[in-house]
Amino acid sequence: MENGGGKKWGLTSRANNKFKMASETSIRGALEILKGSLDAADERPTIPLGHGDPSVFPCFRTTHIVEEALNDAVRSANFNSYSPSAGVLPARRSVAEYLSRDLPYKLSSDDVFVTSGCRQAIEVALSVLAYPGANILIPRPGYPHYEVYAPFINLKVRHFDLLPDKGWEVDLDAVEALADENTIAIVIINPGNPCGSVLTYQHLKKVAETARRLGILVIADEVYGYITFGSNAFVPMGVFGSIVPVLTLGSISKRWILPGWRLGWLAITDPNGLLKETEIVDGIKQFLSFSSNPSSVIQGAVPQILENTKEDFFNKIISVLRQSADICYDELKEIACITCPHKPEGSMFVMVKLNESLMEDIHDDMDFCLKLAKEESVILLPGTVLGLKNWLRITFAIDPSSLKDAMERIKSFCQSVRCAVCTNLRGHISISWPPFQSQVLNESFVRRRYFAKPRRWQDFCGAHM
Questions:
Q1: Contact (CB, 8 A) for 112 and 92
Q2: Keyword NADP: yes or no (predicted)?
Q3: What are the residues facing 221 on neighbouring strands?
């Protein structure tokens, strides 16, 4: 198209393909697609089990300490200016003290860099470490932003598997096989998103020892730190900082239920000083000098939030999550076309396997989620987005009554697409509906021949249901 002067407009985005791919493989992109599948005529409330933001539910409201801290920061008028690139000093100092509580060494404010949520902390870490030809090891399944962001900095990703039959532990043999001279780091997400796992002290130590042998650092994504309700306590990866240098990523988004505040951090948990010696720390400072900073006033509220929040608040949130995790796990046992290999012990999620061979007209996990959204107004996250096709991530961080409703809807949907719910032990069904009165017929034949769009087989089945 010409601009009126005989020349074409020089308006084009050569990065469109990258943006398109990033959007399609991101959690937000997938959820937007699923929302588009909702049936506007369905008067039931949509139940979101694909999100990581429980703040809309009253049982997950943040503590009043947060409101008081923000009010005090605003009234002080001390945080109306631009913040230093590394963050305001009181916020950095308070994060250092918070993280040091469970470390065998003390962090200082110089070890902490405040970021716009944990997502920016991820981008800072990857950008500083990347160089032409470099690769990074990320978990499968895992949080997709690592893989989404890597192409923009020409960083290659290599996937190591998490082992569902071992509580989603890291496949350390695979890690050793994947790493080469261009591997820069391994990403460990603990407590696990999307698996709901909590790794033990012993296993994390093995991870640290493996990384040391390979000569790579550990990026510890601990945004769900301390959100545990099983038998394993949360152990910060920084505990093993004397074995291997660790970049610890975190935020107030999850533990304090404040995802919209976009306040995170990147901490240097490296008592041997290797990251300073190799100028990684300088690279972080340089990157932050030209990137955006989180709100100064929210940074100003951080010290009170970290120092004054009572254990009662955390215990209440953990209690609700434990109850919801139990509900989710127990209900999943009743759904034959979904398998849950490991009961969640932390974070807000559980990964489950689709038994697609038991379902008709369901092609894969995305197809399942699209049709579930349309038929039952329940949104799950397809495992494909997280690196595992034909798996699903279920968020149980909603109020328990809504979760029970959602699980009933999922169960109903699975019954509607699964032949076997109507079979007896021989794989046949007894039909008491003309023209098949008192006949026992092969179920798949009946489906194909007489029901173009079967919805509720229990409406037609007899005593063998």
A1: yes
A2: no
A3: 189, 249
How many residues are listed for the chain in this entry? 465
Contact of 183 with 214, CB cutoff 8 Å: yes
- Asked whether residue 296 falls in the same domain as residue 325, the answer is no
Alpha-helix runs per DSSP H in 183-273 = 201-214
Same-domain check for residues 137 and 37:
no
Distance of CA 131 to CAs 134, 147, 184, 214, 219, Å?
5, 16, 9, 18, 17
Confidence class for position 445, pLDDT limits 50, 70, 90: very low
Residue 15's pLDDT is: 58
Burial of 133 (0-12, 13-18, 19+ CB in 10 A): exposed
Q: What is the DSSP letter of 179?
A: -
Q: How far apart are CA 279 and CA 128, in angstroms?
A: 10
Tokens for 224, please give them.
Answer: 């769900």
| Domain enclosing residue 385, as ranges | 22-59+312-418
* Total number of domains in the chain: 2
Q: Characterize the bridge pairing of strands 47-48 and 378-379.
A: parallel
The pair of three-digit structure tokens given for residue 392, joined into one six-digit string? 């699903």
Give how far Cα 290 sits from Cα of 194, 214, 234, 268, 285, Å. 32, 32, 34, 20, 9
- Residue ending a domain, among 309, 339, 364, is 309
Q: What is the pLDDT of residues 52-102, one digit of tens each?
A: 999 999 999 999 999 999 999 999 999 999 999 999 999 999 999 999 999
Element (H, E) at 381: strand 381-382
Both 266 and 414 in a single domain? no
Integer Cα distance of 53 and 305 in angstroms: 19
pLDDT for res 12: 67
> Domain containing 358 — which CATH number?
3.90.1150.10
